[in-house]
Structure formats: C-alpha cells, structure tokens
Amino acid sequence: MSAKYIFVTGGVVSSLGKGLAAASIGCLLEARGLRVNLMKFDPYLNVDPGTMSPFQHGEVFVTDDGAETDLDMGHYERFTHAKLSRDNNLTSGRIYEQVITKERRGDYLGKTVQVIPHVTNEIKNAMRKVSADCDVTLVEIGGTVGDIESLPFLEAIRQMRQDLGRDNTLFVHVTLVPWIAAAQELKTKPTQHSVKEMLSIGIQPDILLCRSERPLPKEMRGKIAAFCNVEEAAVIGARDVANIYELPLAFAKEHVDELVLKYLRLETREADLTKWEDLVHRAYHPADEVHIGIVGKYVEYEDSYKSLKEALVHGALADNLKLRVTWIEAEGLETKDADGHPTLDYEKELAGFDGILVPGGFGKRGIEGMLNAIRYARESETPYFGICLGMQTACIEYARNVCGLEGANSGEFDPATPYRIIYKLRELTGVEEMGGTMRLGAWTCVMEPDSLAAKAYGSTEISERHRHRYEFNREFEAPLVKAGLRLTGTTPDATYVEIVEIPTHPYFVACQFHPEFKSKPLEPHPLFHSFTAASYKNRVAHGRAQTQLALAAEAIVTA
Asked: pTM here?
C-alpha cells in the first residue's frame, strides 16, 4: 500500500512551531511502530538556505548527502529516525529551477508551462518520491497561509486530497489563539480567519493545533469547532512548553496520535513513550547544572546555532544535568590597548564557565575574539570544544602563541599571512560561486585509538557531516605537533585533518566537522556528552558543583 500523507500548514503568524508539531506527530507515530518520513517545502526563491544570512534564516542544517537545508530538518531528525536527504527539503527556487530545466530540454513538447499543472505536478512528484518506503509521510508547508509564495504548494496538497482521497490524506493546521491582556481573554477570531483563508483555496483542515499561552477552555474549543467546521475533539490546545522534548507527551495527552490514526484509518500498537517520559523527568529534575560559554559570531539570534544548543542539552541530560548557556559575542572579546595588544578584560568575561565552545561561522568578523577565548581556555585548563571554525581558530591560536609563528592566520582572513595555517580547499581554488561550493555532507574520519575523541566514540572510524571551504594546512603539521598539538583524526587517505587535541590539557578537542547535526535527545552525540561531562568535572574541581556527581563525570571523560 502506498504511504498516507499528513500536511502541516500554519496560519495567522509565522514561527508558531509547525516544524516541531510535525516532528512530534512523527515521533508519536514511530512510537506506535509506523515507518515515517518528513519533508518541508519552503516558499522562498533561494535554491537552498546555504547563501542566506544566519540572522535571516537561522541555522543551515546539513544532511548526509550534502544538502544545505532548513533548520526544521534538524527537528525531524532529532524526534524521529527518518533518514533525510536533499529530497526532503525543497524551495520554490529549486522547484522552478527543475521546471525551467525541463522546459529548456523540451520535455514539455512545446506546451505553455504554467503553475498548474507543471509546477504543482513537480511538487506532487517530490512528495511521492520521499514516500516510497514508509507508512506515513508528514509534509510541512513553510510560511503562512495567505502568502502569495506558498499558493502553489497549497494547491498541490489540495490536489493530493483529490488524487488519494480522505482516508489517505490529513490536513493539520497550526494556528494562534492570542491572549489579549486588556480584555483578559483568549480570542478565536484569528483562527477563524485563518481557516477561512484555507477554505477559500479548497482545503478543509481536519485537526487544528491552537497555539496559546493559556489553557483553551472547553467552550472555546466548541466555538472554534463550530466556526471552523471540525470535530471538537480535533481542536487541540497546543500550549507553550518549557522544554520542547515534552511536546510528544503533550500531544499524546491531547490524543493527537489517536485522531491521526482514526482519520487515516490505521491500526497500530499502543505507543511506547517510556524513554521520552524518562527524558522529560530528567529535564525537570536535574541533579545539578553545567555552565557553558559559547563564543560565536551570530549569538544575537539563537536559531543560528539551533542544533548546537540542542546537542549540548542532550549531552547534559545524559548525566542528569541542566544546561546553562551564556552566549558571548566574539567581537566583544577583541578589546586592545593603545599598542594594539589584547587587554586582560576578556579573561574576566570568560572566568567562571565550566566549559568554552567556539562554533562554526564564515568571515573575518570576531576572529580575534575567538582566538582570545581559545587562549584563555588553553592556559586556564578550561575544557574546550571547537567545531569547524572553532578547530581552525584553535590551530591558528596554537601556531601564534605556542609555536611563536607571529601573524599566523587563515587564507580566508588574511591572504597575505606569512603562515597560512588554514587554506582553501585545492578543488575550490578559482571557484567564486557561494552556493553549494564547499566540502558538504558525510565524510569518513579515522582516529588514533588512544585519543579522547576515539574513547568518546568507542570506535576509531566514524562518519560525520561537513560544511566548510577551508582546511588545516599540513605543511605546518611538524612545528605544531612538535609543540604538543596532536592531530588525532584524519580522512582515510590522510589528506584532510578532522580532529585536533592537546593531550596535556584536561579536555581540548576540536573537529572540522559538525557533530551537532547527528545528536538526538535519546541518543546524545559522544563528543557533546564527553564535553559536558568534562565541563562538569571542571565545575566540581572549582567547588561549584555537588561532588557526588563527579565520579560519573570522571568515568565518561576517561573511559
């Protein structure tokens, strides 16, 4: 039997949590033994989010096959076991690009190419493509109902109902029931208008997820049901939760999965949510906390580091710890005196953190601040974890301040540097286009057996996802290794350096890949787990923690 479809749309305003809603429903269906897949359509004309500013779009999530995708794909992977690829996230730009390519090839045999049927057929074919090996496919339509850009996608899912029938398609509409403080009441009118907008294009929602700050009274659910032509039981009060991993449990309590099974005429076993219940219990009843300072370039907008923050949460939760994060703008650590030398102010900014992390990024802005943060972590023996740019800057800092290579830098930041510790990938020399021109996707890494990273993974060979243009220059390997830096992970052919460590430091690990993309709440990533454990051990050593947890932290770091 072909897959059944759940279409998730949003109304009233954006950022209501359609992605988390789709991921949570997928999680509940998986818990009942169904095979699920998820995909997202984004209405913008960019081919992918790879060239978009993190301040505009947030994080770019990378899949194993090297696709640069929307951050909601991260939610899908964290909440389910769906194997996502470039086929799971399409934009208007990619759809139109495919249609125009076919038109130029003559595939349409001289016909007039139009939104209906050519664009909508492309969208429907994309949905069918990802549904081949699953029972239920959840399809999220980005943006808000009423946007011009999203009309072709909404028309396509309307046609899917016509093609497949009511028993094989389900419309879930996420909407807002705002609390008006002046009137001291919740208002249903925005939801009514949003559903009316859906009806005007031929779509009748089956389930309404009503986002609100307050509980939705029964009489209000009845009112919404009457005006929006849905069952009262299908009007779901989707209140804000303190922890996003509580969402599957909250939806289960509201019988969302039972409604889905009823409408799609599916029979399954009972959902087993024991592990999620245990996870949420630990989140609300931590034994202690761990405080991490993240020194980044885009910290004003936390969604720029969405997967990173969640991976740290996963690592902390594994040891029943609450994560406390302080976002530090890298430029703020760049203060210099009259002679151009760094002042000691940055040390005061960084004192007191249990661990310091420098994440990925592009461009010169904030680099000197990152170097100061890394120097502080190295000299004060504070656990350090560097990711992508965080590894490159760690190598530059070591070259400058330990090896004495004054002016050492990356070719990205200073093309005239006498010591080009980091340089552009050879195969990208002369390539000036920005989109998709990086080392992207899953690459194999081979590690030294006695390294911290190998101990954390419990293996000497791994596969991790990349997104970068610059690499460590192995011409400078000898002086850095002689001075104590250890290159503990490389590609199997030893061309590219993947992991560096300082063995004399309590915990100093930096990697060229992005491990955050593979972390799940129930399966925390080994490097994040080992980093938060080492950071907690540092907290214990400085008398900031409950010492009874120190042994657990010690076991994880030294295992």
From this structure: 0.91
